Hints:
The chain has helices at 2-5, 78-88, 105-113, 126-137, 175-192, and strands at residues 13-17, 32-37, 47-50, 63-69, 89-100, 141-148, 198-206, 219-220, 227-228, 235-236, 239-241, 248-250. It has 276 residues and is α/β, with parallel strands linked by helices. The protein folds into 2 domains: 1-104 and 116-146 and 200-213, Rossmann fold; 150-196 and 215-263. The strands form 3 sheets. Strands 3-2-1-4-5-7-6 form a 7-stranded mixed beta sheet. A 3-stranded antiparallel beta sheet has the order 10-11-12. A two-stranded antiparallel sheet has the order 8-9. Helix 2 packs across helix 4. The radius of gyration is 19 Å and the shape is globular. The relative contact order is 0.13. The model has no long low-confidence stretch (mean pLDDT 90). Zinc ion binds at residues 221, 223-224, 226, 242, 244-245, 247. Residues 221, 223-224, 226, 242, 244-245, 247 line the site of zinc ion (ZN).
Amino acid sequence: MHEIICSLSEGAFLLDLGSGSGSFDRALTPAAVIRVDVEESAAAGETFVRADAAALPFRGGFFDALILNHSLEHFAGLDGVLHELGRVVKSRGALYVAIPDANSLCDRLYRWLGRGGGHVNRFTDPRALERRIERATGLRHVATRVLLTSFTFLNRRSMMRRPPRRLALAGGGSESVLVLASGLLRLADRVLRSRLSVYGWAMYFGEIPHPVEADAWANVCVRCGAGHPSGNLDRRGLFYLCPRCGARNIFTPDSAYRRLTWRRPAPQPEPCKEKR
Length: 276
Ligand SMILES: [Zn+2]
């Protein structure tokens, strides 16, 4: 999402919808950040509005950019929410949506662990969702990246609440077990060309001045969930230390997932029309 939030200028308004405690560091953008969630959870000093995503208390065309980071899957009344996104964003604005692939191992595990996990929308077809968002918001689809996971939600160290009992069946939430499991899944993906480490997709719409990252980043931290391009990491043998939180993770080159690099789909030929 940095392609959007870093391109905004002072005086711009940026909506973090379904923000939880915040989808990104406010210091990354000079724009005015407004966090919105149905549960009051923003940090002190943040501008927070408690609201339903299907009934946003803002005038039309107020925001220069919208960020929905792992939140759209939680919103009931999806058509109403998409309509609201199109209403509050400027016609030359930008939109970022990150969602899980409901068919992925990660999302199945998350829903099993959290007895549904609040995922009321289960997305399996990124092309269909891109078209649906384009129609509802009027913003042009720009790109869709594949996102990978290291199952951060299973890490006891990252949990805000008491761990669910079922966690005992998924390695007990031990960080070292997660590091090893993530490393093995990435190895399986390389050898078998499987998608075991896939989380879902990041979709970009609208006017985005910075080039959008197309590669899937293989290195996602087991503790903080931050992804980093492999070329930027300080590798130490099999491992790297997360630049954000310092956790030790197994290193995987991004080239292992080059086959998932986003490429614009070829235009479909018009169906033949009978000549009169
Ligand atoms: Zn980290």
